[in-house]
Amino acid sequence: MTSRRGFLAGAAAASLLATPALAQTVWRMPREYRPTLVRIGPGQIPGSIQVDSEGTWLYHILDEETARRYKVAVGEQGRQFRGTAYVGRKAEWPSWRPTASMIQLEPEVYGPFRGGLPGGHEMNPLGARALYLYQDGRDTLFRIHGTPQPWTMGQSFSSGCVRLINSHVEELYDQVPVGTPVIAA
């Protein structure tokens, strides 16, 4: 027999991860969220990725004067990646498994998915592509990835990762090699 709490937990998980196809047909991307070439100040490292967590922007630094800017969703306060890392691995249509800390913090939301979801699954929160962030040869468990929930852009929404609209992460993925430096502030 399903308890009221069990039902509500299942509904919360479903609303968090489900129905992306329906929502994507209704959501309209604001013009200012489109990837844009912008001028940057001096001192940026060409080829690097800079994440402005407060402003919810990701910048792929193209040269000493120009970056490609993408609107992103970032982790909730206290769950955001801050600091320096590098792209240690890349994956197309990556599989996903919630981390132990995600399950511990929100067991009703993430517990049902402890076994993970295959890449391409409509409820897989990593979306179309993932850039895995590493420090000193170790996976940080933070990602720059796509999302089946584009309406979350501009918000502090996720469990810590940086999310892009799927078509935007596909573009970035094609431009960024393994080893790319990532700086998040």
TrEMBL record:
Domain of life: Bacteria
PROSITE patterns per record: LD_TPASE (PS52029), TAT (PS51318)
GO CC annotation, single: extracellular region
Catalytic residues in the record: 145 (proton donor/acceptor), 161 (nucleophile)
GO BP, one annotated term: peptidoglycan-protein cross-linking
CDD domains associated with the record: YkuD_like
Any GO molecular function: glycosyltransferase activity
Assigned protein family: Belongs to the YkuD family.
Name this polypeptide is given: L,D-transpeptidase
Classification of source organism: Bacteria, Pseudomonadati, Pseudomonadota, Alphaproteobacteria, Rhodobacterales
